[in-house]
UniProtKB/TrEMBL annotation:
Gene name per UniProt: coaX
Residue sites binding K(+) per the record: 119
Role summary: Catalyzes the phosphorylation of pantothenate (Pan), the first step in CoA biosynthesis.
Protein name: Type III pantothenate kinase
Cofactors demanded by this protein: K(+); NH4(+)
Organism whose genome encodes this protein: Pseudobowmanella zhangzhouensis
């Protein structure tokens, strides 16, 4: 890494905080932060922060205070009604989760056909975009951890750890039945997304991202692609547009 001026990209998710560093061309580093002290070494190298948050308001407040003390301006990103050709379908554009908006921006940058982007985080979300750039809307459902967490909370099912082998085969023990069942629900979202895309004319792709996308057998479907760090890459695209100004 050179010592050029960098911008810090921060994705405050529902449960984790992720960051990236961009030089305007590339994301040159990424990581996860769970302790405020970890930001200080990063501050020395950046002149601007791009922040996208969908949760943890108290953490966002702490970040605002920290960067203000360091005299580093913070751009807080929100969903817009349009960026380039991408048009937000929400009746109130700003109400669309900014993580969903950034994930769409990111996928649209790399692919101009019809697509769905599915984010498997605390919540699992799916958003549909046509080749024209028109967003159709999407879905919000409980994510993998949230699904089995809800089962443990609402039933007498025993708490158990994630099995080593996770697939959607019919299980013959409770632990497998729970986790394979939740994985089947995630796969179900992909199948239904594929069905929705098939209703529109033209080629399509499905992009998957988020911490729990790693459990999905994406190699089994040639139309499914990994979009790792899609939210951070969306922030990088916004920051790069500002670098260019
Ligand atoms: N170190 C890790 N590496 C990869 N995945 C992780 C890690 N820690 C937790 N996860 C998984 O990531 C999921 C959380 O998804 P994600 O990484 O997208 O973060 P998040 O903070 O929940 O953000 P969001 O819900 O906004 O997507 C959890 O359900 C968990 O299974
Ligand atoms: C759906 C989540 C929780 C997914 O992280 C987030 O995008 C969010 O808080 N969205 C706001 C509501 C919406 O997108 O309709
Ligand atoms: K998410």
């Amino acid at each position: 890494m050179s010592d050029a001026v960098l911008k810090l990209l921060i994705d405050v998710g529902n449960s984790r905080v992720k960051y990236g560093l961009t030089d305007g061309q590339h994301i040159v580093a990424t990581g996860m932060v769970d302790d405020m002290a970890q930001w200080l070494p990063l501050c020395e190298r950046v002149n601007q922060v791009y922040l996208a948050s969908v949760g943890q308001p108290e953490k966002v407040e702490q970040l605002r205070t920290l960067f203000s003390q360091q005299s580093i301006p913070v751009v807080e990103v929100a969903s817009q009604s349009q960026f380039g050709e991408l048009k937000n379908a929400y009746l109130d554009a700003g109400k669309l989760g900014v993580d969903r908006w950034l994930a769409m921006l990111s996928c649209r940058h790399g692919y101009k056909g019809n697509f769905a982007v599915l984010d498997f985080g605390t919540a699992m979300t799916c958003d549909f975009v046509l080749a024209s750039g028109q967003h159709l809307g999407g879905w919000i459902a409980p994510g993998f951890q949230t699904m089995h967490g809800a089962l443990f909370a609402k039933t007498t099912l025993p708490h158990s750890t994630l099995p080593d082998l996770l697939d959607t085969t019919p299980a013959r023990q409770t632990q497998g039945a729970i986790y394979n069942g939740c994985l089947a629900a995630m796969n179900g979202l992909i199948r239904e997304a594929e069905y929705q895309l098939s209703l529109h004319e033209g080629e399509y792709r499905l992009y998957v991202t988020g911490g729990d996308a790693r459990y999905l057998p994406i190699e089994q479907n040639p139309r499914v692609f990994a979009a790792n760090e899609a939210v951070l890459f969306g922030l990088h695209l916004l920051a790069s547009a500002d670098f260019a100004e």
